[in-house]
Amino acid sequence: MADLIPWQEFEDEYARLFSEEMGAPAKSFPMALGALIIKDKLSISDRETVEQIKENPYLQYFIGMSFYINEARFDASMLVHFRERISANVVNKVNQMM
Q1: What's the DSSP call for residue 67?
Q2: What does the pLDDT read at residue 61?
Q3: Mean pLDDT of successive 10-residue segments in the chain (98 residues)?
Q4: Is residue 98 within 8 Å of 6, Cβ to Cβ?
Q5: How many other C-beta atoms lie within 10 A of the C-beta of residue 50?
Q6: Alpha-carbon dihedral sign for residues 58, 61, 63, 65
Q7: pLDDT of residue 79
Q8: Domain map (residue ranges) of the chain
Q9: Which of 3, 17, 54, 56 gives the lowest tally of CB atoms within 10 Å of its CB?
């Protein structure tokens, strides 16, 4: 599934939502959308999603990580922000391209 998504095309659109001068650096689009896909496909809570990603190297690869690390890459509360920033329109575009 990771190979079917044109991550960079959507990363550019996603990056426009953030300011380089304000706040902490944003998580990448593959991390944000990947986490939402994992949550949806496994039908689990935000906290369980973070735990599953932490424990599973395949899920870490799916969200764009190049190596395994046994630490949470983000807090469960970030999934709320991911859902706010990734519109249904973007998700529909990704689905159409897949």
Answers
A1: S
A2: 93
A3: 74 67 69 90 96 96 92 93 82 74
A4: no
A5: 22
A6: positive
A7: 94
A8: 2-17+29-97
A9: 3
